[in-house]
Design goal:
The complex is a heterodimer of chains A (about 270) and B (about 280).
Chain A lengths: L1 H28 L17 H8 L1 H34 L5 H9 L6 H19 L7 H26 L3 H8 L4 H29 L16 H9 L5 H24 L2 H4 L1
Helix pairs in contact in A: 1-10, 2-10, 3-6, 3-8, 3-9, 6-8, 7-8, 8-10
Chain B lengths: L6 H5 L2 H21 L4 E2 L3 E2 L6 H8 L1 H33 L4 H17 L1 H12 L4 H9 L12 H25 L4 H8 L4 H29 L3 H6 L7 H11 L3 H28 L3
Antiparallel strand pairs in B: 1-2
The chains are: A mainly alpha (about 270), B mainly alpha (about 280).
Chain lengths: ~270, ~280
């Protein structure tokens, strides 16, 4: 019995090694002294982080991803929080359909959505003369769509679990809908909103497939800069870049876990 | 605060709805239309209505091969993913320590959120001729000289399995949470071994979840882009990269749209199937 239990735990541990091992290796490799990656290394250095930052594609890609991610997060919160409130707190015809439509960007394959949006942007430009493909604005629109379902999901979840008694009390004491939202509902669902912001940012920051069609010269996001670099070379520079991205996303994940227990959110 | 029909409330969804309608639904409708158009080298499109692209996608040996390769690799990856995800999900859902459970879920979700660029880079370092895998196998003496792992179909399957595993674990774990552990205790008190209890009690009850997770994984694998391009190398022809090539490189919008619509259709069907399975667990 006991042996069986240990064997089971060992099997699970092994699967986690498969899942996380490559990430540990890439972090490890970012400190290797040799330019050509080989195991074990001849020595260690931290110079690759500086070297990566000196490559303009990575530095600009990083800044671009941060800017696009921040803008997409703001848009998805500004549109997603009211939408989540409407879907959870009001009843109107077609509510469930609208809920599905707002979650749908999560289910449409990224490569298909990217292709469709790209063609749409180009046609839009032909008709209006207004360029969206390969612009910052176009990227923000596409990334807002990546972020919106995450905001919807997490804010809806916290609205469902939040007690409506205090909202009703506020209304019966004479507060209007707007006052009730800002003074009562918002403080209650604040953790959900913070988690929504974190996940929106992460989803945007790590996106590759949807941005693929929409980036232009000098307007590349970090994941695309990584893929472009990988086509030609595989060295510790790329490990350093990946390590930075793992750190940023890992931190965002742990921060959001403090607000919404991820063990229960999934 | 539900107040019957409330148009003020409904107006709150409007901006988000407009965003999705204008920049996702409309573009999808557009490529659906273009998928029935024909490529013209000068004008891009002929402006006709024809099913020729769909016929070509299914009948042309090259695209037939792409479709079959993609489906085969997706199916194989899905099977392996389900075999690996089941024990992990079961382990997590039966953990007593909430702390450990929370950490394992974070560790499962982290790779999922890192994005495919970083994860493919990590696998490239592991699987290269001078990578960890070869160094390890050499030092143990299992192989005499480095073997080629990267840029093979096997490598693509390994990469896809690691990409899909978190999705499957999360989906299965939430289904297993809803299966009361008292059922297993009942099975064991009848003298069944733990393995037999899982096989006889948990597996049948979790089957809708397994089917749903498998459908989601298969759809995601069909649509994979980064893994076949980076880990599979230039000879690996799968649907995702071919769609990108047709639209962004060859500028053949109609045929690219056709391939994209085929992917979209497969994904749509599988998503509907999976939600059917998932909702059935409540009965």
């Amino acid at each position: 019995m006991k042996i069986g239990r240990y064997a089971f735990a060992a099997l699970v541990a092994l699967i986690f090694v498969f899942l996380l091992g490559p990430l540990i290796v890439i972090i490890w490799a970012s400190f290797f002294a040799d330019k050509i990656l080989s195991f074990p290394p001849s020595g260690y250095t931290t110079s690759w982080f500086g070297a990566a930052w000196a490559i303009s594609d990575f530095a600009n890609g990083f800044l671009m991803s941060v800017k696009v991610g921040a803008c997409a997060t703001v848009v998805s919160l500004l549109l997603g929080v009211p939408a989540a409130l409407a879907v959870e707190r009001y009843s109107f015809p077609g509510r469930e359909t609208i809920r599905q439509v707002l979650l749908s960007p999560m289910y449409v394959p990224a490569i298909v959505a990217g292709a469709a949006v790209y063609i749409y942007f180009v046609e839009f430009e032909i008709f209006t003369g207004f360029q969206l493909a390969a612009t910052f604005g176009g990227l923000v629109i596409a990334h807002s769509l990546i972020a919106l379902p995450w905001t919807m999901r997490l804010v809806c979840a916290s609205l469902v679990t939040a007690n409506t008694v205090s909202e009703e009390a506020a209304r019966s004491l004479g507060a209007n809908a707007v006052q009730t939202f800002f003074l009562v509902t918002l403080p209650i669902i604040r953790p959900g909103i913070i988690a929504a912001a974190m996940f929106s940012f992460i989803a945007s920051f790590s996106d590759l497939e949807k941005s693929l069609f929409l980036v232009g010269p000098g307007k590349t996001t970090l994941p695309i800069a990584i893929v472009n670099y990988l086509e030609w070379s595989l060295d510790p520079t790329i490990s350093a870049v990946a390590t930075v991205q793992i750190l940023i996303i890992g931190t965002a994940l742990i921060v959001s876990d403090r607000f919404v227990k991820l063990g229960k959110a999934f | 605060m539900r107040e019957g029909r409330n148009w003020g409330g409904a107006s709150l969804v409007l901006p988000a709805f407009v965003l999705v309608a204008a920049f996702l639904l409309a573009p999808l409708a557009l490529i659906l239309r273009y998928s029935f158009d024909l490529h013209d080298p000068i004008k891009l499109m002929k402006g006709v209505f024809s099913t020729q692209n769909y016929v070509q996608a299914v009948a042309d040996p090259f695209y037939q091969d792409v479709l079959l390769t993609t489906a085969n690799i997706a199916a194989l990856s899905t099977v392996i993913v389900m075999l690996l995800a089941f024990p992990v999900a079961y382990y997590i859902s039966r953990l007593e320590s909430q702390r450990l459970r929370g950490w394992l879920i974070i560790l499962t979700v982290l790779p999922l959120l890192l994005g495919n660029a970083v994860r493919s880079a990590a696998w490239m370092i592991v699987m290269g001729t001078k990578g960890v895998a070869n160094a390890l196998l050499l030092s143990v003496g299992l192989i005499e000289e480095p073997i080629k792992i990267l840029y093979t179909p096997t490598a693509v399957v390994i990469g896809l399995v690691s990409v899909l595993l978190p999705f499957a674990i999360i989906t299965l774990q939430s289904v297993m949470d809803s299966i009361p552990s008292s059922l297993e205790e009942a099975g064991q008190s009848l003298g069944h071994s733990p393995l037999r209890t899982v096989y006889g009690v948990v597996l049948p009850l979790a089957m809708p979840g397994v089917a749903a997770a498998a459908a989601i994984c298969f759809a995601l694998a069909m649509n994979a882009y980064a893994t076949p391009v980076l880990i599979g190398g230039p000879t690996m022809q799968m649907m995702g990269p071919v769609v990108y090539g047709q639209i962004a490189k060859a500028n053949n919008w109609p045929f690219g749209s056709t391939l994209a619509c085929i992917l979209m259709f497969v994904t749509l069907v599988l998503t509907i199937v999976s939600t059917r399975f998932l909702s059935r667990k409540y009965f």
